[in-house]
Amino acid sequence: MDPLLYGHNPEQGIVAVRQASDSTMRVYIRSPEGLTSKEVEFYPFFLLSDSSFLDNFPIKHWVKELQGSNFFRYLCAFTRWSEMWDAVHHIIEVYNRGAVKRVESFNDLPILHLRYDPVSQFLMQTGRTLFKGMNFEDLHRLQLDIETYTKHGQKFSNPNRPEDQIILIALSDNRGWEYVISGKNTSEKEMLLELVQIIRERDVDVIEGHNIFNFDLPYILKRCELCGIDFTVGRDGSSLRSSDSRSGSRERFTNYILYEIDGRHIIDTMLLLQSYDQSKRVLEHYGLKYAAQYFGFAKEDRMYIPADRISWYWDHEPDLLVRYALDDVRETRLLSDHLSRGVFYLAQMIPFNYGTAARLGSAVKIESLFVREYLHQKHSIPKPQMGAQTSGGYTDIFYTGLLGPIVDIDVESLYPSIMIGEKIGPKSDTLGICYRILENLTRMRLDAKRRMNKSENQTERMLLDALQSSFKILINSFYGYLGYSRGLFNDYEAADKVTQSGQKILHQLINSITSHLGIVVEVDTDGIFFVPPRSFQGEEKEKEFVKMISKDLPRGINLVMNGRYKVILSYKKKNYALLGYDNKIVIKGSSLISRSMEKFGRYFIQQCVDALLNRNINGLHELYLNVYRDIIEHKLSVADFAKTETLRESREEYLEAVEKGHRNRTAAYEVALANLTHWKIGDRIAYYITGTDMNVKGFEHCKLVDEWDPNFPDENMQYYLKRLLELAKKFEVFFTPEDFHAIFSTDDLFGFSAEGITPLMLHVPRVTEEVEEEESEVFQIHPTIELDESEHIV
DNA sequence: GGACTCCGTATACC
DNA sequence: ACGGGTATACGGAGTCC
């Protein structure tokens, strides 16, 4: 086991670490004899650039001068956590004596580097990590889901209302146990006490829930308070602790409170789902039921109950509600089986508690590997470099319109491959460990992948897949770390080298495809959509072609075929739609499919794309007429034309920015100001446009969705008609002006005929060619590129 | 009063 | 507490004619 990746301490079976006192850590260990714990001494530390700041600090401490000439040259250690903070305050005071700008917090001290999390400090300095020698299945994981009552006439449960009590607690674990605490014949207080008892008796390592940070835990805590009991679920009998918001900035970026339990971990599957989707970007939202269906483990007879019917079921059909709640915990368990496995493997490497590892971004994880090794070698550590990256991925579009057949190729792990192949890493990494870590991770990943592909055992394959994908996420983040402004080891020049190398490889591929008479349509960073040469049609030939053009690539750069499609509707850079051989349609890009677009607009665009891909011109016209009619006849409901936006600023920030002229008023915030007394950053608000003039200012004519009355619809019909035409105009480039006006118009007194209307394909003018060519080259689809059913070899 | 540009914010792609 | 750059859409404000 490589100590660079796993730390230098091989101790096995650590399931959790928790600060026990000012100077000790409690380490919980699982061994064949059961669970034990021990108290271990801990020496809090930070890094300093100049040891003289501590010259007159009276309390016992150590200052170790580190090797090398990086910025942070002194390691300062203490016997107590509180004394470390005394030292920090001492330094702030000394620093402010000579400073032009006073600093208030250790965060603003450029001469000091301190990791706030004591557990992480401990793991980093001892080289320990969690879960060594353990399998994911060795963890005892409990899933929890509560159902709550809602007072009649109210929309949501509110833990502050006495009658909105917890009515059901559904529980399950990864050993096949399931249990429901029902509130039918039990008081809420007894229910909560039983829950505490169960968690302690079953002595679980992990408590899991979907949206547990934002709903279940705060709700449970509030009800415990009302019942006058403590939620003492810690392994040492302590209560669940919510993070004191000492760092007031936490709220700014994350809209949940953190909870900690002594000796155990809390995992919110909703957060796991979000980070899963950050790389895949396939989920419409992060609801449990939707996710279960997406991953394909929702059972057929699964019980569904709408949120606003829960109280009714409790009053009339409590058994069905029990079934529903059990289905919820089951799906939570399956979701976690799927998503938390990777975090488990990661926690074996990085110096963080399991729950922390599930929440951290990848930059912090990578940096922790660097810092741990530098501390181990007693080597000085650099500070973040000032500056910025100057280049990024290469994106381009060569044709718009309908083209096919299409092959989609990808350079596999483009940036990490370049970093390894050309040995690019941070200049400040004087020990040269970046390359070693990256290479080792990659080797382990490929090894896991190879074993996965060879394995016949379904369970083993899943296990190895989780392993390799958790490596992959980390591997892919190394490039991002180079350009990360706050990374200690950042290096913008190195990041630029990587992207420029990437651009070169893409250009080489494009040239290769074109020289073989393939037609490159769209390019983005590491992927190319192109029409293969006529002599390479059909799946086998296409694969052969990909193999051929990959031959000239640098060593370590691998090409894979990502997919093949009947047609592409190429619209703009990063915006296209694909029609697969299974007739499924995929739409990509914010201008074609965006969460901020009104529902009717999304529907309209989707149907238009469908019609275009299938060359159904009549369908386009019909669609336009139908939506037009729906708008003028008030057939749409408020949900169809409302816009939902996320509030990313607080009331105060917004008002201040507007007043100072830094930003304009917008409808979303004006609606929020008028209707909400308070909102959290991250809250979403749905509104619609009122008035009669189609050119109204949105922020002056907007109403909350709830204010809309179907009996007196007051949406701005003219405005939404204008909006419809705006959306239709996205398709203007695909037709001649005459054709476009014929299709997207309602004045077809003499009937509409699609005859003679063909979508255009345009060669997008090259920026480098702009001198020679003013207007783009327009031509009808040529047989080589046209999708012609008869030509297909499927 | 429209056409135009500029700017900040939001969303999405890789 | 926090990976990155590239790209499009949109609303509002200011400017010009």
In short:
The chain is of the alpha+beta class and 794 residues long.
Explain what the structure shows:
This protein is an alpha+beta fold and 794 residues long. A hairpin with a 2-residue loop joins β18 and β19. The longest helix is centred in the middle third of the chain and has 30 residues, at 318-347. It starts with a helix and ends in a 15-residue tail after the last strand.
CA-based gyration radius: 30 Å
| Helix content percent band | 25-40%
The total count of strands amounts to: 27
The total of helices stands at: 24
Largest sheet descriptor: 10 strands, antiparallel
End-to-end span in angstroms? Answer: 48 Å
Overall structural class, as computed from helix and strand content, comes to alpha+beta
Strand content: 15-25%
Low-pLDDT runs of 5+ residues are 245-254, 768-794
- The overall pLDDT, averaged over residues, is 88
- Shape summary: globular
List the helices and strands and how they pair.
Layout: H1 3-6, E1 14-19, E2 24-31, E3 34-41, E4 45-48, E5 61-65, E6 74-78, H2 81-97, E7 112-113, H3 118-126, E8 141-148, E9 166-173, E10 178-182, H4 188-202, E11 206-209, H5 212-227, E12 241-242, H6 250-253, E13 259-260, E14 265-268, H7 269-280, H8 288-295, H9 310-316, H10 318-347, H11 354-359, H12 362-376, E15 395-397, E16 399-403, E17 406-411, H13 414-421, H14 433-454, H15 458-482, H16 492-515, E18 519-524, E19 527-531, H17 539-550, E20 559-572, E21 575-580, E22 585-588, H18 599-613, H19 617-632, H20 638-641, E23 643-646, H21 651-659, H22 667-675, E24 684-689, E25 702-704, H23 717-728, H24 737-743, E26 761-763, E27 777-779
Parallel strand pairs: 8-11, 11-14
Antiparallel strand pairs: 1-2, 2-3, 4-6, 4-7, 5-6, 8-9, 9-10, 12-13, 15-18, 16-20, 16-26, 17-19, 17-20, 18-19, 20-21, 21-22, 23-24, 24-25, 26-27
The chain binds a DNA duplex (14 and 17 nucleotides) through helix 6, helix 12 and helix 15.
